Amino acid sequence: MILLNLLSVLVLLGSVCVVCVWGHGWREPLDCVRALELCNGDSQCSSSYRIMRQCLSGGARDRQTMLAGRECQGAIEVLQDSSLYDCRCKRAMKKELQCLQNYWSIHQGLTESGEDFYEMSPYELHEFSEEFRHASIISDSSLSKASPCSEPGKPCNPCLDAAKACNLNETCKRQRSNYIAICNKLSQPSLANQEPCSRKRCHKALRQFFERVQWELSYPLLFCSCSDQACAERRRQTIVPACSHQEKHRPSCLELRRACRSDALCRSRLADFHTNCQMTGHSITSCPHDNYHGCLMAYVGLIGSDVTPNYMDSSPSNSTISPWCSCRGTGNQENECDAFLRDFTHNTCLKNAIQAFGYGPEGSVLPVIESLATPFPPIQPPLNSKPAPSLHANEIKPQDSTCVFSTCANLKDGEQKCIPSNDFECEEALLAQGSKGEEGRAQHSAAAPGTLIVRECVSVCMSMLGLLLQAL
Amino acid sequence: ECSDLKPPCPYILPCLHLSVGLSVCLQESSSQTTKGAKSARRKRLKPCSLREVEVTVGELGLGYDSDETLLFRYCSGRCTARRRRNYDIALEHTRRAGLIKKGRRDKVQYSPCCRPIAYEKDISFLDNNSRYHTVQEVLARECGCA
């Protein structure tokens, strides 16, 4: 009897997993440069696009009435069926700015007010970094309770070690010297009273540094873990805050956000930060999909934009992170302003991610272990707590979701529910099945909505596996 | 490594700088044993090239107090006799002939030196007082016999 049970579960597990992983073809989202090219090839689409651009061209108030008009609504309807609708951009791709401009030119019109508190990231989902994970596991097993300072006798400064590692690498040294020289260079004497440096050039050099230097070398400079003030001060100084972060005038955070949203790159990076570092109660790490690396990448993406964040003080363990803005005197908008600011200053996901990076094992392994002990929480809602509704309805396509949700519904009838997270396991399981080879892997890594589905699918497989183990 | 004036090496043979104030000429010796020892020494001295050593910025002696480590690149090695220009030969000859007078204020070198022919543009670092500095031409990028 038990054997029979076991067999049936095994068969079910096998079939679900196969159906989930290979049953439906997830497709890579088109990049928005290509999507516009395709749209321009179609007369109806291209004219709708032109109309849409006009609808959005006016000021904020005009825009509302314009968009409500019949012509604009018609254009929106056409565009929702076009390839432009779910196009995405890749970080550091060729023509990234153009891609982002294309993205916003349509998505600005699709959301009701054109500006939600949280906006969807125009970037594809960040991949889970296998190296990041492995590095932490390796250091965990070899040093057990590894602190970043293991050399006895020497004063411990992981941030100094990070600078050394960077200096010993040609690209890192050159790029670092470059942004430091630019950010630290005083402006012409005639302009001396205005700005201590050329902020614009400094920001550009910083973006270039984080784009061109491998994260294994650049992230330790920014996320090193410190036990004393000298170290924490070095960490705070990483982005040359006197030029890139601080200003004489401290604007209101809403003002800062408005400035950021008028720039396609800044707006995208901010949306990406909100998507990937959004605190969520549905995962142990409080990060979306327990993806620390995605959050750190999104955070780093903000450096060199109007909302460049940084450590506000040189406290070794309890430093506050914030962009250069405040919510004082924002009047009736104070709540909204605070909510915006708290996503930086009181963000558990971001804090955990930084800590996990600095200490290796501490944060990244622990939650996975814990998740086995805690009762399975209900299935996780997609990414944002407050997403653009029109976008999310389509994020999971009906034919895709049949697999996930019907299976989960069946499971819910029993005592077991679906496992929503355990993404690392899922990823692993998926890679292990990589008989489809390079093609399959490339598709999986690129597809944004697709990967989401696959993760859920694999989660279901894992939960079934849990069932199986319990039966044993 | 540059040859010193003393002892003057015979034409075409380079000078080997051993330590402060002591140089020997690399030449064929009558004795078999010294010949072996000297050619071994000559072999040990690599041709002029870029070398590197890990040091902290503070150890460079430029007056900066910083514990940041970097790779100090410098030029070292032998400049072969073949690299001697007519200039070196002429200089040596005129000097020997007494046409250029020896004197304390006059120092001439008639074999090429291994020196940087290109430097890295600049190097930036944070000092121990949390100030950034950018210094030019600290690191050699390319070496040559000049």
UniProtKB/TrEMBL annotation, chain A:
Residues 1-23 form the signal peptide. One of its GO terms (biological process) is cell surface receptor protein tyrosine kinase signaling pathway. Residues 32-111, 159-243, 253-349 form the GDNF/GAS1 domain. The keyword DNA-binding does not apply. It is found in: Cell membrane. The keyword Calcium does not apply. It is a lipid-anchor; GPI-anchor. Coiled coil: none annotated. GO terms for molecular function: signaling receptor activity. Pfam families: GDNF (PF02351). GO terms for cellular component: external side of plasma membrane; receptor complex. Disulfide bonds join C39-C45, C159-C224, C166-C172, C183-C202, C197-C243, C226-C231, C253-C325, C260-C266, C277-C295, C287-C349, C327-C337. It comes from the Eukaryota. Keywords: Cell membrane, Disulfide bond, Glycoprotein, GPI-anchor, Lipoprotein, Membrane, Receptor, Signal. Belongs to the GDNFR family. PANTHER family: GDNF FAMILY RECEPTOR ALPHA-2 (PTHR10269:SF4), GDNF RECEPTOR ALPHA (PTHR10269). Receptor for neurturin (NRTN), a growth factor that supports the survival of sympathetic neurons. NRTN-binding leads to autophosphorylation and activation of the RET receptor. Also able to mediate GDNF signaling through the RET tyrosine kinase receptor. This is GDNF family receptor alpha-2. The gene is GFRA2.
Automatic annotation (TrEMBL), chain B:
Pfam families: TGF_beta. Transmembrane segments: none annotated. GO terms for cellular component: extracellular region. One of its GO terms (biological process) is system development. Residues 28-146 form the TGF-beta family profile domain. Keywords: Disulfide bond, Growth factor, Secreted, Signal. InterPro entries: Cystine-knot_cytokine, GDNF_fam, TGF-b_C. The keyword Disulfide bond applies. The keyword Signal applies. GO terms for molecular function: glial cell-derived neurotrophic factor receptor binding; growth factor activity; receptor tyrosine kinase binding. It is found in: Secreted. Belongs to the TGF-beta family. GDNF subfamily. This is Neurturin.
